[in-house]
Protein 1
Amino acid sequence: MSDVKTTFQSIACGGTGGDLTAMDSTDGKITRIRPINYLDTYTKEELEPSIWKIKVGNEVFTPGYKSAPNYFALAYKNRVYSKNRVQHPLKRVDWEPGGDPAKINAANRGKSKFVRISWDEALDIMESEIRRIVEKYGPYSVLTIGEDGHRESKNLHAGGGMHSTLMSKLGGYTREVRTPDSVEGWYWGAKHFWGSGCNKGLGMPAPPQTGYNPWHVLRDISENSELIAFAAGDWELTQNYASQMWSRLLLFWEKVGKEFVIIDPFCNYTAVCHDTMKWIPILPNTDSALDFAVMYVWITEGLYDKDYVDSHSVGFDKVKAYVLGEDEEGIAKTPAWASERCGIPEWTIKAYARKRANMVTASVHFSSGAIKGPYSHEPGRTHAYLLGMQGLGKPGVQQAFMNASLIGKETIARSTSSPFSSINQCRMFYPSEQKIPRTLIAEALKKGQVDWWGSPAIVYVETSEQFQVNSYPTTPETYKAALGTISPEMARAQNKSLEELQAALDHKLNNMPEFNKIHMLWSEKPCNMNCWDGGFNYQDAICTDEVEFFVTNHQWLENDSLFCDLVLPVTTCVEDNDSMGGSMVVSLRHDSLTPPGCNRVGESKSDFEIACELGERFGLRDQIDMGMTDDEWIQFGFSQSRLGEEITWEEYQKRGFYFPKQDPNQEDLPPGMRGFYDDPKNWPLDTPSGKLEFWSDALAENFPDDLERQPMAKWVVGGSKKEGWSHDETLWGDRCKDYPLLLVANPAKWRIHVQGDDIKWFREIETCKVRGADGYLYEPIWINPADAKVRNIKPGDIVKLYNDRGTILVGARISERVIPGAVVVHKGSRVDPIAPHLDRGGAANLISPNNQVSKHCKGFAVSGYLVEAAKVGKPEMDKWKKEYPEAFARDYDPDIGINYSSWVIE
Amino acid sequence: MKAFLIDMSTCVGCHDCQIGCKDEHCGQAWMPYAEAQPETGQFWIELKQFERGAVPHVRVAYQPTMCNHCEEAPCLKAAKDGAVSRRDDGLVIIDPIKSKGQRKIMDACPYKVIYWNDELDIPQKCTGCAHLLDGDHPINVPRCVDNCHLNVITFGEEADLDLAGTEVLHPEFGTKPRVFYRGLPKKFIAATVFDPDTKEVVIGAKVTAQGEAGTFATTTDGWGDFWLRDLPDADWTVTIEADGKKKTIKVSTKEEDKGLGDVALV
């Protein structure tokens, strides 16, 4: 077939690329997307220096010569040609530019539909609204949303910060800070135990001495661990998001005799398909109770590494007293005590404790479970304590997580996750003098003022940052704090004198910009209501006159875009001329040329191109594209990288992708936390003491009255708002009388966060959706037969899942895979609003808590909270249909769900 | 003669096979081998899943299921005008033109792996991606095989495949399938054994299942768990013995696998 054109594409639903696919196209249309065989491009001899190996006994594990793209990448034709693609610029039919409350019809967001407009008109609106708002309120009244990795894999053309880049040229912007999603418990809890951690801030362990990089963790686990404990970590789901090679590693671990335990309310996608897995069902967000009982067994039976605890930690006595009931509380955290709370039989708790102590145990954790719940700093810390008590860093005693997954180390590697070349022009993770954490946008809009602690950005912030107060709008105090102070190091780095730096700083301090409230929202990642917390509350906030203009750049018409005024259509990653590579959780890291694999869909443009065209309107295009074409950018990226040390530009262009060579001296780097284990004096942590801090003096000093996050982890139940508690989301408070089930809202098998809910080849898989009697494909609610029976819920029933924050509709999937007392609705199903606080799409985060992790920790709490489930009968459905006929009249295609034609008036 | 070998023991349920098939055939025709498959609703290969057991002893068996390219293919016998044929390599192909209107081709299949395309009025099923095997394409193996990253599905000359100990689906249909399985699920009985006095799991207990179908034995592991696997469908007397204590339970696996939960040894 001579007319077939094949390109390489790096497709993953995150910003760091995936295993390469070959995309065959015919006449500009995608024919197939398939794995590639590296030997079609390189010889074995050529590849040999780039291939890492793990040896365990006589068994050897390598990445092999064939890529293992994630199943999302293999189904990406559905995404590119989705009936939900935004084809043209769209304007909400009853919104007019100008900010006049009578003409913006803010309350109709999420209700009124869209009409197609031309790019010229769309750019006119963008230009005039930005000019109007900047003139009236100043540039800081533009909130740029989307500093995020939860998107497609693109490099030059990436979104999630191009709006910030443009606005930075126009005088400033308010930064929406991506709060530490998926790592909440580590970030707010474990950082105070073992330091800032990976990427200098994520909160999972990494030594400061390697630039906060956890090298060789999986190699150490492969060679030395005997038991691998997955604490709410779904390997077959989360670890595989950029490459499915990780399934092969699991099979290798089985082959060399590892044992596995999975602690999860849900018999997850890893537990169900491996006979080697021990599933211990646990009630949601009770993990710290289990962990304290494990500590109790270890302490009373002498099963922990006392010497290590003595030499490598501080404050253990306080934890010990708490666990044994020898403190003022006086309650021993026995297995019987824990069993009542976590739902695990006492005998299994003891068996787990002894197994973990008697076998070399590694812990594997992903963005799931208690780490994302209310008070997640408690399980985050207790999980960390368990590793600490068994000698964190000892051979095989490590924590594995996504950023600690790199096997091998390339000579030209910059870190365990960064790409080899980067031409990303997004202004991501850049500080701005005015900012709002993503979790507080709704409150900021509703109240006009919010305070919080820390930035709190997900990466590149040390633990002590959590003690700084911030506020919106920016005040002189927070402005001063944001600008920071000068230092001799800065002077040296910038080649300036201290006096010059001080003068520049003084000039800024004396000329504080006007910081006004936000009135324009511009999102390059329009899924806050579904990816983040308190979704219904967020919907309320963006439907007010405060928001004069809300624009989204997006590929698909979904979620926040349904609530905006203007939608700008964006290309998918396979439509751009880019060089993506793959740098995190891929089988073999690469740099690659990813030219357009097919014709563009509709009138879409990349976020980079949109920023360039708007830049043109403001006479500053050359400050964004720097006068370079895409091809020139790609070559520039290569020339700026270290790739040229190993391959010429010409050769690289000819081959299309390249695997950098393995560093022959990589064994010199200690794996994971080994440096600290072997030599804590020379490999100190970045905690105040340099050691593991079971008790944190820093927390005690900064937050002496915080009962929710105390200086050491405790079993925290919470309580009423009146008494000052952030949450009452357990089975031991008052709200559980009305809402007796605990919801698990972990990532879905058939979506990555909110991406891919429209993939029709997934939607017909029985675990993906549940077809209701009305023909609608509802998001499944996994419910145990016992809980279903008392509610008279039958398989396939339409079920309302609700609490005092609202109601979502879901479809019953009755299953032994979920512990009684819990229900599972995977997060991220697209919203399909019926009315305020009533949604048919099954987006779980809509009813998640409006309050954050705890008082001083403004991260999200989106799993392990209270709900009730009830069957929806015909009378109730008919009543809704009568009350909200427009919502039920929208076009619906079960293959895709809600789609472009549901919301666009043709 | 070609054959498929499916090893269920390493399948993790990713559905790559099913997705690859759809990517190849949905919305694009490969004439004269196949008309386009409708975008949804047909599964030329389907990853069937069976949830088994009860909390906390639960497993899902993932079973790739496709046309068996039978040697004694009932569809071939039911077809008129030579609308179904067997190639020299053994693949059974429905002619998209000759088969128009022939519902009997679909009805003849005891495995229910032939689908009806209402729009085109033809029966459709797996072609073994014969167009890829024959043609000038970037790959020359079936898409389900190419997509599988764990080599669960292999395809090749029968003589080159290790078929010892494999099974076929429903041999009683007598159609001589050319899709061979390793690890087809049998029944299991599982439980966690504990001592109610000490509130400890019982490790190393002898567990025996006896019945007309035979005797199966195992011991409890470090979790106090036993898994009696690969059991035939039958009635059983399960005996658990440790430290002079003995417990007997009557269990049937005729209908389903049995997860017995936590069992007190008294």
Note: Chain B touches chain A through 54 residues (CB under 8 Å).
Protein 2
Amino acid sequence: MSTPIVRLFVLVILLFVLLFVWTSRWTVLEASSLNRNPLNVRPLLAELKVKGGRILAADGTVLAKPIPGPGGTWRRAYPTGLLFAQPVGYSIAAQGRSSGLEASWAAQLRGDQSGIGSIFGQLNPKPVGNDVYTTLDPKAQRVAQQALGGQHGAVVALDPRTGAVLVMYANPSYDDNHPDATGPNVSTFNRATEGAYAPGSTFKIVTATAAIDSGKYTESSLVNGNSPITVSGVPLANDFNQSWGPVNLIVAMTNSINTVFAQLAETVGRRPMTDYMKRFGFYAKPTLDYPASELRASRPYSSSGHAYPPGSPSEDIGRIGIGQGGLQVTPLQMAMVAAAVANGGRLMTPHLTSRVVNPDGATVQTVKPTVNSQVMSAASARQVTQMMQKVVEEGTGSTVQIPGVTIAGKTGTAEIGASGSNLTQPSFVAFAPVQSPKVAIAVMVDSSHGGFGATVAAPIARAVLQTLISEGR
Amino acid sequence: MSARNRELVGLIPASLLVTAGFAGVFIQRSGALSNVSLTYGAIFLGLCLAGHVFIRVTLPHADPYMFPLVALLSSFGIVMIYRINATLARQQAQWLVLGLVLFAATIIFFRDYRKLERYRYTIVAVSLALLMLPRVPGVGYSANGAYLGIHVPGLFVFQPAEFAKIGLVIFLASYLRDTRQVLVMGARRVLGLTLPPLKHLGPVLVIWGIAMLILVVLHDIGSSLMFYGGLLAVLYVATNRVSFVVIGLLAFAAGAWYLGTHIVHVHARVETWLHPFDPRLYHAPLGSYQLANSIFAQAAGGLFGQGFGQAQLTLPGGGSLLPAAQTDMIYAVITNELGLFGATAVLVASLLFIARGFKTALLARDSFSTLLASGLSATLALQVFVIVGGVTRVIPLTGVTLPFVSYGGSSIVANFVLLALLLLISDRARRPAR
């Protein structure tokens, strides 16, 4: 009876080989597709069990932290709520939803392992994520919130030397502990990075840069400031239809003379103007460490709402030169414009975070300042700075003056709504101190009844600038 | 080195595994190593040593590898069960003690196990009665539509099939020892197939009938495949006729197909086996949730697993991610925590034990011993195949235990009796002639 026993054993071996092959199939051969199967809740549960890292302000204030949930899981809590909700965002792992820094830094906050760790399974018995330190300044952020005083709008402040975002506040905001709550003054829409504002006269900084850096003008070039003139076949007038006669660029900037800047833009030409706008970052989403879906490119749009391709012949370049002509910008973009002038013409890439620290306290990633583009020469930047300084000293921006601090700025007041509605979109763009600029800021307010950049936006910028500079920036 | 000393050395891996395993689970639980894990290891090692000393005294010539292999599988099991539920592990440890007691009792009372032959009709009657018990109103109960257990209220849950499998093999080994010559000699060839004489075909038909009955009664393809396969294995060893096996398997396939399409529960099991990732079946009651999550758990294990104590078995809000983790799904838990390597270790340990069983069958000096040893080994092999095959989706999933590893008193006790029988046969076969 030995032959059948041996054969029987061979059959058993074959059956066991079958078991081995099938186990290999699930554990190795088809493992990755099984892990992606929508019915498989294990990857999600593993994520829920990760004690995610914190998000902190520059001074260590906790903006987001993990709190324990049921069954060894963790969820996110936001101690500062709506003050920082727009930049920080939220993350609900159970629903696979996230936004803001929570989304753009998700991998570091989860402490995702790579390489050997992911091949051999979770080596760390209790997965803990890394802490992400932002560059945001809580004190200035709160001042921005208070200064806006419930008006819809946004404040963005940058360190022009590094590109670090110091303040990013947009109103209305929301409580990121309850991102689905609705209400009259609740919005997850981040006006600072997504808002489409008419820049108005603040855009004259860009036009002046193009005019001077292209070599066609200097700050003392004389241009006819009479009103009205015809731009693209349509008359264009100055405020109160005032004619200034021949004025130099400093006077034109100080008094925000529309007809001068429209002529500058037309003389510089469509292509060079577009080129300078691109150098400032227009026509593209800023390379911020923030989800691309929550960033908007600043550029001109046709009246029917289509984005003009860069340098399109349909653009009214003269009106674009004074911030009209369908131009739509984000507060972040206008802060970048101020920062480029402030930093000697060199635009630093904006960033919201400074470093990533692991649970042992070791810095695992440092966000180093990088140059986004050389927008203009240092000499051109000096001339544009001088023009902007005059605006604050004796022009439209005198409302922003701070004793002992020299400020360079530009007001903007775009007329929105039907003609005669008196509805405006006030804005203010500035940097300070002029001698060694440490802060660049843009303030944009959604709408005002007859308010101006100087009266509505500039005081907000003044409060935030004062806070940041008194902190030793 | 003598056989018994080899056995003693063979116990070292099991004791190391159980200690390391408990330590691993403890570290995961509390972040600190507790001396309780060492205590568990020591108790387990003590039990192994007691068993070893008992074998040394009573069966000095028995196979030296079977007991250490069983110890290894049991230690795998108790660590995994401890990891799932500490209370269940304590119960399992108690079952292991009871198993060792019955192991000793079997060896003492059936020292000449051949006297079992005298009671073969009693044994087969009791075995069949045991199989029917789960359908008896009041004590029987069904799990997932299959009738595999009986419930004595307030006392215990009992899975009679674990004992019936041994009884049926004893009966068949004994019956075929007498009739195997006739079955072979009287065979005729019809249409290229070797058929046994009609009057002796009876027992084969009876076996087929038993298997179909099991299928009808228990509603379970896997269990009936295990019983039927074990019985066919004995028939094949007794007659050395492949054709008998082929006819038997064809008859089984026909019966299984008919019942699979006509018994709702069996049909559902086949459907979930074919389409475990169909969202409709996944969310349906008695659907593919368990099987799909078994496969997901294995996928999460990868090559080396997530480590002792790392498997995710429950959902954060309550509810089970891997139902029946400690019994049917223990192989999936092992794969999840120890990966393909750990799972292969369990398969190899089981296969080595089965190999020692067949080796014993080869060494046995009388037909009854040979048939009994090969029948018990084949049944055990098929039990491993049925449950691991079910968990890994080779065949439809069935609720049988993984021998020596799964949680369950009936399973542990019955398999220790099976071990005792194999060691008895082995001791007699290897005893030097006087």
Note: Chain B has a mean pLDDT of 83.
